[in-house]
């Protein structure tokens, strides 16, 4: 079902299946070997059914307290970053728009770092302030990149990407300056910057859940509006749409989604450019189809990447941001070449 107006039911079903398989692999992979059947029986034993768990107490703790929250967090963060990337591409009508490239991730990183370093001076529970600070930083980064790109070259592909790189570099430099002001927090901040899913467990899931739900609900509801924007501002206005208002809503929701992801996982690049492009090739150009499918395949993608990150050099673990960079950088070059050839 390509380019149609309705939901691509087949691809949504495929996305659910991919997410389920990725989640099963995620909870199975690790030093403690757990079979799919044992995992299923243990999960059923947690429900009001007369089912006995085959896992030992230690195995059950590994599953419930370590692996399950990590898989859930991977699915949530992947869905948020991928959907935000798809929404940015739609609202800017730019195939290279991405939370990482537009300065959203760097801005969110600066905001989160400010709270990590200075939060104790303003709140007894600064951890709860991280998503809010990350959201404000993400908005700052995106709007700065958009304004700079528009002033420099009319908001075209090249100017927007270059503006995003410039803004990201500036915000990263500001973040480095803040880090140097609090040397004792450097290890914690650098670990956060490289990206990871295994730090907070269920606490991080509960922390990010309300922001994730709010961001995804708004973005999914804006699919039809993004389709109208793709026709051009003049056509959208003739259909009764206010393009400026739609852009504010979509950019704010995508920045909230990015900030929510970054606040618990650190900086994980390229998810927002790789997944939406793959999904667009599968389902067509309608954002009513792209965004819901991107949610599912984005979640599945990052769960699988996290499996690679924690098993490739086991018992050591690669930062997940390193793995996505290895996968995403060549993909970005391919997209850049394709975009350039189409513009010639």
UniProtKB/TrEMBL annotation:
<feature type="transmembrane region" description="Helical">
    <location>
        <begin position="100"/>
        <end position="119"/>
    </location>
</feature>
<keyword id="KW-0472">Membrane</keyword>
<keyword id="KW-1133">Transmembrane helix</keyword>
<dbReference type="GO" id="GO:0033214">
    <property type="term" value="P:siderophore-iron import into cell"/>
</dbReference>
<keyword id="KW-0813">Transport</keyword>
<feature type="transmembrane region" description="Helical">
    <location>
        <begin position="16"/>
        <end position="47"/>
    </location>
</feature>
<dbReference type="InterPro" id="IPR000522">
    <property type="entry name" value="ABC_transptr_permease_BtuC"/>
</dbReference>
<dbReference type="GO" id="GO:0022857">
    <property type="term" value="F:transmembrane transporter activity"/>
</dbReference>
<feature type="transmembrane region" description="Helical">
    <location>
        <begin position="246"/>
        <end position="275"/>
    </location>
</feature>
<feature type="transmembrane region" description="Helical">
    <location>
        <begin position="207"/>
        <end position="226"/>
    </location>
</feature>
<feature type="transmembrane region" description="Helical">
    <location>
        <begin position="287"/>
        <end position="312"/>
    </location>
</feature>
<feature type="transmembrane region" description="Helical">
    <location>
        <begin position="128"/>
        <end position="148"/>
    </location>
</feature>
<feature type="transmembrane region" description="Helical">
    <location>
        <begin position="68"/>
        <end position="88"/>
    </location>
</feature>
<dbReference type="Pfam" id="PF01032">
    <property type="entry name" value="FecCD"/>
</dbReference>
<keyword id="KW-0812">Transmembrane</keyword>
<comment type="similarity">
    <text>Belongs to the binding-protein-dependent transport system permease family. FecCD subfamily.</text>
</comment>
<protein>
    <submittedName>
        <fullName>Iron complex transport system permease protein</fullName>
    </submittedName>
</protein>
<feature type="transmembrane region" description="Helical">
    <location>
        <begin position="318"/>
        <end position="336"/>
    </location>
</feature>
<dbReference type="InterPro" id="IPR037294">
    <property type="entry name" value="ABC_BtuC-like"/>
</dbReference>
<dbReference type="GO" id="GO:0005886">
    <property type="term" value="C:plasma membrane"/>
</dbReference>
<keyword id="KW-1003">Cell membrane</keyword>
């Amino acid at each position: 079902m390509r380019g149609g107006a309705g939901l691509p039911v087949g691809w949504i079903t495929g996305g659910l299946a991919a997410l389920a398989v990725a989640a099963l692999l995620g909870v199975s992979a690790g030093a403690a070997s757990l079979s799919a059947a044992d995992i299923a029986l243990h999960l059923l034993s947690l429900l009001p059914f007369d089912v006995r768990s085959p896992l030992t107490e230690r195995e059950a703790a590994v599953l419930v307290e370590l692996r399950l929250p990590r898989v859930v967090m991977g699915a949530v963060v992947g869905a948020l970053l991928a959907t935000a990337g798809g929404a940015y591409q739609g609202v800017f009508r730019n195939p290279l728009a991405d939370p990482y490239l537009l300065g959203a991730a760097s801005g969110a990183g600066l905001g989160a770092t400010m709270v990590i370093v200075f939060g104790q001076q303003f709140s007894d529970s600064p951890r709860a302030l991280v998503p809010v600070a990350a959201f404000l930083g993400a908005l700052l980064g995106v709007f700065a990149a958009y304004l700079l790109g528009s002033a420099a070259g009319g908001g075209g592909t090249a100017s927007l990407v270059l503006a995003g790189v410039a803004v990201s570099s500036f915000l990263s430099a500001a973040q480095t300056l803040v880090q140097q002001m609090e040397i004792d927090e450097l290890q914690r901040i650098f670990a956060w910057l490289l990206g990871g899913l295994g730090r907070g467990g269920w606490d991080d899931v509960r922390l990010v859940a309300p922001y994730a739900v709010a961001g995804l609900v708004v973005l999914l509801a804006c699919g039809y509006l993004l389709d109208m924007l793709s026709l051009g501002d003049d056509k959208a206005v003739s259909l009764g749409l206010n393009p400026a208002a739609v852009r504010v809503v979509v950019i704010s929701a995508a920045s909230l989604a990015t900030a929510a992801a970054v606040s618990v996982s650190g900086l994980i690049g390229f998810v927002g450019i790789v997944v939406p492009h793959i999904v667009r090739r599968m389902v067509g150009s309608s954002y009513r189809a792209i965004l819901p499918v991107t949610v599912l395949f984005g979640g599945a993608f990052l769960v699988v990447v996290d499996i690679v990150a924690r098993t490739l050099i086991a018992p050591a673990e690669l930062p997940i941001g390193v793995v996505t960079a290895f996968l995403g950088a060549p993909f970005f070059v391919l997209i850049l070449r394709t975009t350039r050839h189409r513009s010639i």
